[in-house]
């Protein structure tokens, strides 16, 4: 397979863009491609992150299209986690921009927290999951958005509607292929079931973009298959998924495109629907010494 270069990713927002005037400044621009079919929902331009002298992410420019599963594959230390932490508001970029589609245009974003990113429509499921082990699956899924029982308006002592939370959680878990009691405490669940709770917690907020960080890292072989099905099942015509993994079999099986990351850079983007994707070739590209 010949070394293909990184795709020229979509539009060039730098053209005609006014400089940002402050932390909340926003810049509008058109992000529709020529056909309009592959609508870009998220774009990064020269996104970089230094930790002291270490440049963990270097000038990453990439488009995420509506309804696609984009995998980012790379070896340990390639910069995957740092990259998605910038998209999810946990880290602020040293340089570069993040754009999201809003009202048909790509608009520059300035996330100072993960809540900012969540509010803007990016939900992230971390490999560490961040679940409360002693709370039930339903409580974890609804964390921060618990429905209240009917009661007099303005009455502060209304209780959470646990029945509704259990019914909704059960139905959401079923949708993604899991059938366990949502009243179970998280610390009683298997690795795959915990992952399903974390994904359900992201899905219930109905975000247009979901980032899954290494979702198969802690699950059994059977669990892994379920998670792959789960990832496949997520885009429902509206959702885009960014999947972070160093497991090539997983990314080749589920992704529409695979961005190979090495030494902080995206070195190649493969389209699994068009390119003849060779797993060993990807592994080699992940590991190859950077050409100087
Ligand atoms: N908080 C930090 N402080 C200093 N260096 C960091 C920090 N976070 C990451 N790095 C460095 O940045 C580089 C990229 O790390 P990152 O965790 O993003 O890679 P990764 O591809 O996600 O790796 P893994 O698959 O092991 O999670 C590495 O050299 C790492 O040591």
Describe the protein.
The protein is α/β, with parallel strands linked by helices. It folds into 2 domains: 1-14 and 23-121 and 208-292, Rossmann fold (3-Layer(aba) Sandwich), CATH 3.40.50; 130-206, no CATH class. Helix content is 26%, strand content 25%. The chain has 8 helices and 11 strands. It has a 6-stranded mixed beta sheet with strand order 7-8-9-4-10-11, with helices on both faces. The protein has a 5-stranded antiparallel beta sheet with strand order 1-6-5-2-3, with helices on one face. The chain is globular, with a radius of gyration of 20 Å. Residues 1-37 have low confidence and may be disordered. Bound molecules: adenosine-5'-triphosphate. Adenosine-5'-triphosphate is lined by residues 51, 54, 56, 74, 76-82, 246. Residues 42-288 form the ABC transporter domain. Keywords: ATP-binding, Nucleotide-binding, Repeat, Transport. Residues 1-12 have a biased composition (Low complexity).
What labels describe this entry?
292 residues; alpha/beta; Rossmann fold; 6-stranded mixed beta sheet; 5-stranded antiparallel beta sheet; 26% helix; binds adenosine-5'-triphosphate
In short:
The protein has about 290 residues and is an alpha/beta fold. The chain has helices at about 80-85, 115-120, 135-140, 160-175, 190-205, 220-235, 250-255, 280-285, and strands at about 30, 40-50, 55-65, 70-75, 95-100, 105-110, 120-125, 210-215, 240-245, 255-260, 265-270. Strands 7-8-9-4-10-11 form a 6-stranded mixed sheet, with helices on both faces.
